[in-house]
Amino acid sequence: MAKTQDDDVQHEPGVRRYRALFVSDLHLGTKACQAEAFLDFLRCHDASRIYLIGDIVDFWRIRRGIYWPQAHNDVLQKILRKVRKGTDLVLIPGNHDEALRDYCGVHFGGIAIERNTIHVGADGRRYLVIHGDEFDVVVRYAKWLALLGDWSYELALWANTHFNVLRRWFGMPYWSLSAYLKHKVKRAVNYIGEFELALAQEARRHGAQGVICGHIHHAAMRQVGEVIYINTGDWVESCTAVAETEEGVFEIIRWAPTPKGMSSPERRVEELEAAA
Fold first, then answer.
1. How far is Cα 23 from Cα 233, in angstroms, rounded to an integer?
2. Average pLDDT of the residues in 58-67
3. What band does 14 get if pLDDT is binned at 50, 70 and 90?
4. Residue 125 near residue 274, CB atoms below 8 Å
5. Environment class of 157 (CB within 10 Å of its CB; exposed 0-12, middle 13-18, buried 19+)
6. How many CB atoms lie within 10 A of CB 127?
7. DSSP letter for each residue of 13-62
């Protein structure tokens, strides 16, 4: 890694064009999905290729009762509009939209549905692009426990909404209580570290030098052994995506929901240049 830049990087307003954008864990169909923030993100960012890396539509939640406001429909329409304008779209189903895995290998128009794929960076490095639930022991071997965890997770998100109402009353910015609690618990059992190691090993098995995934709702970009590990995060708690510039620089973009009184969302970028 020749360059790692943390904290805030400011860019001029307007549409930013990238070589590729990587997004996961929108969870459309749930009240927790921050669809409006994602629409703002799509209006301000474009790319030659967009990877949707799993859990885009949350069929687990929809099966318990349909929740589909206009903003969620607008997200799909906005994505399809980009495809019609020439953007290549790769959809990799996750565990919450696993029904779409029956269509892996299907290509129509500018859309390809794949179980996983290889993204070749501007510098020639190969990145395995995969959702990652296959390497989550809870999802893989005890689905009923994962569903129970999904219910308790929704409860935490509900509490998080009311928590942030109080913060707004006191003029404080948005903060994800649910993300904080989940990260603390998983860090206590070394879950995240084990997940990263498993994905890095899978990347090596595919002959790739890096892996780009989602699933655990924790955006990150770091070296794991000889593999570059990149996680896109989510659009439920953290509103994050990963982008590759034309020069081959990978960025984590943190797109904070727009507070009242602000003309545009806060944009924070963390960059990593994949170099020897």
1. 8
2. 91
3. confident
4. yes
5. buried
6. 27
7. SS-EEEEEEEE----BTSTT--HHHHHHHHHHEEEEEEEE-S-SB-HHHH
Please answer whether residues 256 and 263 qualify as being in contact, where contact means their C-beta atoms are separated by less than 8 angstroms. no
* pTM for this entry: 0.78
Residues 183-212 have pLDDT tens digits of: 555 443 457 778 898 999 999 999 999 999
Q: Rounded to whole angstroms, what are the CA distances from 60 to 33, 53, 134, 137, 259? A: 14, 17, 17, 18, 30
């593999």: which residue's tokens? Answer: 227
Q: Which strands sit side by side in the sheet containing 240-244, from one edge to the other?
A: 3-5, 267-273, 249-255, 240-244, 16-23, 45-52, 88-91, 111-113, 107-108
> With 60 as the cut, is the pLDDT of residue 135 above it?
yes
Dig out the tokens for 210 from the structure.
Answer: 């890096």
